[in-house]
Each structure stands twice: as structure tokens, then as C-alpha cells.
């Protein structure tokens, strides 16, 4: 069974149709990249998948592990194992990074019928994962993302993902604004999580990230639809030729 199956998804934002019949299937263990020109609807897809209520689904269906994802509220989707960086408020005043994560980890455990995580075990997990993405330990006690630099927020996003261990990790433009060292670290954090039953949807405008997170499948999203699908070489082709001509060729 596919991990994620999107069929004929139509999404309106502020009354305008942005996704216009998008189809996408992701098998367990696969990394799919979505590329495409600005304004094509990439972030809209990410937001619709996590249940942001500004994004109105007008048609289509989304199955996650065979279950109707669109029926679930955002918290349920997170507990089921769908993760999007920044699906939570960008800054959470007064709530420390570790406190927030502990609550999220325990919500996921409860959902699986498990008890709360042991305090020491949690501390070790958090330290190990922070080290993995080279997140400064002082950021663990600070309120979530408050006063974090752009790069620290991105690292924190990958840090959260590696603590929460979702089944589907959605990364929307995680590479934007990162210098090459940070890009490498963040990518290593993602690559360390790749496994047979975990999948990723990596949204990026640029090919560069995909040198580090090598995708199994690359899609081009333009004007609300997937217009082309290929292997990792498609990303290189887009880098040299651009998006012009892709939609005509696909049509
Ligand atoms: P991409 O991520 O591919 O650059 P987006 O999904 O962000 O594209 O945007 C697609 C279109 O939807 C754009 O025309 C954008 O202006 C519009 N849009 C997206 N989100 C909103 C929103 N919250 N309010 C109004 N318009 C939006
Ligand atoms: Mg349609
Ligand atoms: Mg976007």
C-alpha cells in the first residue's frame, strides 16, 4: 500500500483555485522531490496536506496509510506521522523548545497506546538529535524559534523532525537562505532518517539541495498540477533548461 495517495486534489486559497487536479503517490521509503516555478502551488500542497484551514479542499482525496487524511484535524495528522516544518506557529512565546517537543512526543506515544517517555530517555534523545544537526544546545531551552536566526530555525525544523520521527516528512524550501555548510548538515540530518518505511516530500525551487538529499522521484509542479515526473536526473535537466517548455512538452 502507498504511504500517501493524492487523487485529483483541488485546493482554493482565498477563493482562487490554486491546485487544479493534482495526483501524487508516494511509496514507503521513497524520497520525492517537488520542483517548480514560484507561485505554482508547492507550498499550497504542503499546507493542504497538514490541514491548514486557509486552504480549502474543493475536490479530490488524500489517503495516508489507506486512511482519509482530509477527515483528520491537523493534530491528528501530526500524531499519525505527517510532519511539516513550520506547521506550528513559527515562534511559540514562553514555550521552550524541549518542553514543546516533549509534549509532541508524548502525544504521538499516547496515540500509539504507549506511556509517557522517560525523562532521562527524552533528554538523551534530544541531545543526540541536536548533535546530529549541530543545533546549539542553548537553543533547547529557549522558547521555540524566538529570536532564532534564519539558519537556526531551519536546523530546528530538522531537529524537531528527527526527534518526532514522522512517517512522512515534508520539507518546504528548507534550503532557502542556508549557507553551504548548514545545507550539508541539514541534509545529513534528513539522510540519517531515511529508512524503508519513512518517506519524504522535499519541496525546493533549486536543484542544489537534491545534490545532498538525493531523491528517488522528481516531479514538476506547475499551475496547480504535476506536469512531469522523472528520476533524479530530471532535477539536473531543469537546472540547465529551466521550467519553460516543460508544460507545453507535457501537454
Ligand atoms: P509556490 O510555493 O509554488 O511558490 P504557493 O503555493 O505559495 O506557490 O502559491 C501559489 C499561489 O497561491 C500564489 O499565487 C499565491 O499568491 C497564492 N497563495 C498561496 N497561499 C496564499 C494565501 N494564504 N493567501 C492568498 N494567496 C495565497
Ligand atoms: Mg481535475
Ligand atoms: Mg512555496
From TrEMBL:
<dbReference type="InterPro" id="IPR010230">
    <property type="entry name" value="FeS-cluster_ATPase_SufC"/>
</dbReference>
<dbReference type="Pfam" id="PF00005">
    <property type="entry name" value="ABC_tran"/>
</dbReference>
<keyword id="KW-0067">ATP-binding</keyword>
<keyword id="KW-0547">Nucleotide-binding</keyword>
<dbReference type="InterPro" id="IPR027417">
    <property type="entry name" value="P-loop_NTPase"/>
</dbReference>
<protein>
    <submittedName>
        <fullName>Fe-S cluster assembly ATPase SufC</fullName>
    </submittedName>
</protein>
<comment type="similarity">
    <text>Belongs to the ABC transporter superfamily. Ycf16 family.</text>
</comment>
<dbReference type="InterPro" id="IPR003439">
    <property type="entry name" value="ABC_transporter-like_ATP-bd"/>
</dbReference>
<feature type="domain" description="ABC transporter">
    <location>
        <begin position="4"/>
        <end position="248"/>
    </location>
</feature>
<dbReference type="InterPro" id="IPR003593">
    <property type="entry name" value="AAA+_ATPase"/>
</dbReference>
Amino acid at each position: 500500500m502507498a504511504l500517501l495517495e493524492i487523487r485529483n486534489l483541488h485546493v482554493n486559497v482565498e477563493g482562487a483555485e490554486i491546485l487544479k487536479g493534482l495526483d501524487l503517490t508516494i511509496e514507503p521509503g521513497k524520497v520525492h522531490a517537488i520542483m517548480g516555478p514560484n507561485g505554482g502551488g508547492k507550498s499550497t500542497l504542503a499546507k493542504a496536506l497538514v490541514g491548514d484551514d486557509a486552504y480549502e479542499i474543493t475536490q479530490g482525496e488524500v489517503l495516508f496509510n489507506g486512511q482519509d487524511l482530509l477527515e483528520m484535524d491537523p493534530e491528528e495528522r501530526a500524531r499519525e506521522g505527517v510532519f511539516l516544518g513550520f506547521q506550528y506557529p513559527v515562534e511559540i512565546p514562553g514555550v521552550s523548545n524541549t518542553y514543546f517537543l516533549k509534549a509532541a512526543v508524548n502525544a504521538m506515544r499516547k496515540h500509539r497506546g504507549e506511556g509517557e517517555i522517560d525523562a532521562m530517555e527524552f533528554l538523551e534523545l534530544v541531545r543526540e538529535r541536536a548533535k546530529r544537526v549541530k543545533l546549539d544546545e542553548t537553543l533547547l531551552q529557549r522558547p521555540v524559534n524566538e529570536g532564532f536566526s534564519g539558519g537556526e530555525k531551519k536546523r530546528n525544523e530538522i531537529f524537531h523532525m528527527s526527534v518526532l520521527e514522522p512517517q512522512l516528512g515534508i520539507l518546504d524550501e528548507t534550503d532557502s537562505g542556508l549557507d553551504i555548510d548548514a545545507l550539508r548538515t541539514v541534509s545529513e540530518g534528513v539522510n540519517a532518517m531515511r529508512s524503508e518505511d519513512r518517506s519524504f516530500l522535499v519541496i525546493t525551487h533549486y536543484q542544489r539541495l537534491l545534490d545532498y538529499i538525493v531523491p528517488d522521484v522528481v516531479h514538476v509542479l506547475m499551475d496547480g498540477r504535476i506536469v512531469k515526473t522523472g528520476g533524479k536526473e530530471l532535477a539536473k535537466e531543469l537546472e540547465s533548461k529551466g521550467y519553460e517548455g516543460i508544460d507545453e512538452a507535457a501537454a
